[in-house]
Structures
1.
Amino acid sequence: MRCPYCQSTNNKVIDSRPSREANAIRRRRECLHCQRRFTTYEQVEDTMPLVVKKDGRREPYQRTKLYEGLKKACEKRPVSIDVIEQFLDDLEREMMDSGARELPSSWIGERVMDALRQWDEVAYVRFASVYRHFTDATDFMREIRHLLATRPQTEKTE
């Protein structure tokens, strides 16, 4: 490990402990050259499945890309960032647990749509408009009719 201050690779670990989330090891180090201390984190390198797009292209999974899309859909809606982040953590765990080397983008998209439908109908329609490539108001109306038709009967409309 290279010292961030003097660039020396000669250092020692003076303390190790799990991170708060217990998904990494926090190591406190001391440079033997300049005697300054610094912290490093060691974690397992997760190999996420590749995402297979509708046109057949394959690209690495990008959490930030999905996070930004969800954040945009939920903008000015009663959905907290914590809910979005927990969903992404759960989704990534499901992706890893699947053991698949590749997953179709539709697999991810449908899980996102299901979550948004539960969280907030407006956020759901916003995301659907991009995900399903709405071209005009008819597409919006079709999706809203479908949403209303599949809504649980116990909900009251206001």
2.
Amino acid sequence: MKKTALLLFLLASVALACNGILTTPISKITDNPRDYDGKTVTVSGEVTETFSFFVLKYFVVDDGTGTITVVTDRALPKKGSKIRVKGKVSEMFSLGETQALVILEESEKK
């Protein structure tokens, strides 16, 4: 019985990791910005927009629950590509009820 429970636990853990369950739904971030401000999250979804202006580069990710802008220092992904991004949530500005939330992608440079 103990071996069966252990096996089920291990299979469930692998399934969660493989299915991307460990990502945060974008709607949770945008609906509760103060809960996520300054915290590191992982999101995944489709790239819907890209923008580059001198040193400022960003792209927008849509996971089906919402969209969020990702500021990056790496090469921009192609529009329409599926992506998984890890970074820190930052409130760029707040004006009344309007907030600009972004994810500052973790740099690959160490």
3.
Amino acid sequence: MGSRSKINLAYIAGFLDGDGSLMMQIKKRKDGNKSGKRFMLTICFYQDSRHDKTLSWIRNLLGIGYISKRNDGITELRINGFKQIEKILKNLLPFIKFKKIQANLLFESSKILQKKHSLKNTDLRKLVNNIYRIQSENYATKKKKTKEELFKILDLTP
């Protein structure tokens, strides 16, 4: 990897540390999946819509994601997908400073979720613990689900 690439990755990691978020959620499915649930991993960058060219630059450099303008004057670059999250975080982790815990947990979760076989209860419990730890590290304006509520969603009893 050239020095220019490292500089770009360091810039993106710094942007993520300051104006980004790393999220992991359990979402409802409507596609006939037997559990009716799916895990969703997200890296999101936020920027005032007047200065959103930086998000296009990041998207072009990473080669993935979608940009959307919100009604509150903020533009978002969102990236989803287990393999994509793993690849991006592998490159950004050496440069991330303030969101290192969330990044490592999301990276670990992306590896678990890429397993070819169905997830075991131990995998699901690990994922729930990771969701809870990521949520507790993130700044949140509304109450998130407790660990017990997440276990119940996945039909895992203590």
4.
Amino acid sequence: MNTIKVTLLYNWHFMRVLRLGLGIFIIIQAIKTHDAFSGLIAAFFLFQAVTNTGCCGSKGCSTSDPKNNSDKVENIEFEEIKSDKN
């Protein structure tokens, strides 16, 4: 129960507020025009705002930090190639 409260009340950032605003605006327009498709789009935006998820899920689009392999030393061998043309 505590995690639901934390999810709903904390970590509000610009994109989350924007989704909430768009959801509210579109749901009002859907009610005025009696449009079910707009209502579905509004429900999608409101769901994203309430659950703090995006299209890819929570932090789904972020990349992982690259591994630092500085302890390994890699020896590279070079081979000189000469052409037969003078």
